[in-house]
Amino acid sequence: MINNKNFKRNLHIDDLIKDAVENNEGVIGLNGALMVDTGEFSGRIPNDKFIVNESSSSENIWWGEVNQKLSEENFDHLYNKVLETYENLTSSYYVFDGFAGDDIDNSLNVRMITKKAWQSLFVNNMFIRPSKDQLNHFSPDFTIINAYDVKEENWKDYGLNSENFIVFNIQKKIAIIGGTEYAGEMKKGIFSMMHYYLPMKNVLSMHCSANVSASQDQSTVFFGLSGTGKTTLSTNANRPLIGDDEHGWSDNGIFNFEGGCYAKVIKLNPDEEPDIYNAIREEALLENVVFDNESLEIDFADGSKTENTRVSYPIEHIDNSVAGRGLPSVAGHPEKIIFLTCDAYGVLPPVAKLTPEQAMYHFISGYTAKVAGTERGITEPTATFSPCFGGPFLTLHPLEYAKLLKEKMKRFQVPVYLVNTGWVGESAQSGAKRFSLPKTRFILSCILDGEIEKSICVNDIYFGFAIPSSLGDLNKDILNPLSAWDDVDKYHSSAKMLVEKFQENYKLYDLGDDDILNAGPKIPS
Predict the structure, then answer these.
(1) In the prediction, which pLDDT does 374 show?
(2) 368 is catalytic
(3) Which of 116, 195, 247, 310 is catalytic?
(4) DSSP class of residue 518?
């Protein structure tokens, strides 16, 4: 490990912010939040992520595009290169010791080593902060060393895809990061390790948000890819937040992996998302937002740096959170499961009830759609499938997680609903607006209070799931795509195209279970 002992360990958050400002890493902005730019990369670089091919873990890993192999020899070269830069530092570096998993039986002791103060502030926000006694007796289970300024020029010689690298060595319980300053790599790196360790203990690791009823006896889990509304929709004034992104489901119930939230702030509207907006205050960290250099006023609508503008903050900043009440971020077994999707084709209904087999099909599929402007090169709606709604973070084969979900859904009798937060009645390409957030919130309230069960349902002609024919005072026509579209012919052509995409994708992950396969979408004869 690093021989240089000139480090600051678990520095008080005020001192981290002070160091960041003094080191010209960022400036103080809205309500005292620190604002930084993350350099060359404003998001993850998945093509540069590797796992060391070693004997203790190799047979378990889901090798392929998500988990690329790197030899032990090449890891050692990169590891020594990273260590050397730390040992030659003339300034202090930062160490954060804390926990992933707010469940003592299923937590991971994590150590984060960074060169920048703001990166240490990030992990201080995102992981569970130890008490003084816990810190005095701390021993890491997994360590990430962040060397954002280290690149490998001879990357082809060392099995890399570029001069940047994120490499996990499960045997040595160490990961190294080089070439990217984006701190989200540390957060998602530990998430990947939780995806490795927990299923071995029959605990389901989930890319989801979760909240609980005010009486704390009815929890809800929200699955969904980035941009579908996991953070926004789980932040509910009437339901304390458990967490916004990463959870485990054990025999005792669900628990948050994190001690903070990492919310998108592009086009942040304080009227529609007041909890997130109000969480932007001292201790919060804003990334890549555009602001006036003199007034420091933020233009949340400006995505010229990136559409992936973010804020991280301790979960206690959400006043209506379980942690904000001074309690562990845990709850009993979920009463409801929500699959969120942002369908840019306008084919899926705003809400549908899924059978257990349909739920398994859509969990394995993990569908959403990217729209023009959200990523470089995206010029029209593009279907995206990510198994288990978190493919980039899975270390085991997706079927391992799907089997765990199936077992827990059956054991605890949990119903599943699909909620489309994207476009309804026409595609994003038409120029129409996305389905309104207030209407989505109303639909969720109907699910959570059981109102949806009173509605007579009809089956979607392509996807087969049950669509309520009415729901409160919502316009009935918007609930079923068949009536929501003015141009019915265009609806049918769009629906057939999307069904074919689902079918083609599912071939990659077929369980060999005919009941699940038959629950997938079909083009009517």
Answers:
(1) 46
(2) no
(3) 310
(4) H
Catalytic member of 111, 115, 230, 353: 230
Which ranges of 325-397 would DSSP assign to H, the alpha helix? 356-365
Instruction: Judge whether 230 counts as a catalytic residue.
Output: yes
Q: How far apart are the first and last CA of the chain?
A: 64
Q: Which contacts qualify for 471-478: CB closer than 8 Å, 24 or more apart?
A: 471/351, 471/442, 471/443, 471/446, 472/442, 472/446, 474/439, 474/442, 474/443, 478/350, 478/424, 478/425
Return the pLDDT at 231: 83
Contact 351, 443 (CB under 8 A): yes
φ and ψ at residue 279, rounded to 5 degrees: -75, -15
- Look up 207 and say whether it is catalytic: yes
* Catalytic hit among 42, 226, 384, 494: 226
Is 56 a residue of the active site?
no
Instruction: Give the integer Cα–Cα distance in Å for 70 and 60.
Output: 15
User: Residue 9 catalytic?
Assistant: no
- One of 245, 275, 343, 460 is an active-site residue; which one? 245
Helix/strand/coil for 523: coil
Q: pLDDT digits over 54-111, tens only?
A: 999 999 999 999 999 999 999 999 999 999 999 999 999 999 999 999 999 999 999 9
pLDDT in tens, 419-476: 999 999 998 888 888 999 999 999 999 999 999 999 999 999 999 999 999 999 999 9
Alpha-carbon gap, residue 158 to 80, rounded angstroms: 13
Question: 3-state SS of 123-173?
Answer: HHHHCECCCHHHHHCCCCCEEEEEECCCCCCCHHHHCCCCCCEEEEECCCC
The residue with tokens 């002791």 is 109
Which one from 180, 231, 374, 386 is the annotated catalytic residue?
Answer: 231
- Rounded to an integer, what distance in angstroms lies between the CA atom of residue 486 and that of residue 273? 31
Per-residue confidence (pLDDT) for residue 373, from 0 to 100: 46
Active site residue 514: no
Say if strands 334-341 and 330-331 run parallel, antiparallel, or are unpaired. Answer: unpaired
What confidence tens digit (pLDDT) does each residue in 462-499 have? 999 999 999 999 999 999 999 999 999 999 999 999 99
List, for the chain, all residue ranges whose pLDDT scores fall below the cut of 50: 373-374
Predicted TM-score (pTM) of this structure:
0.92
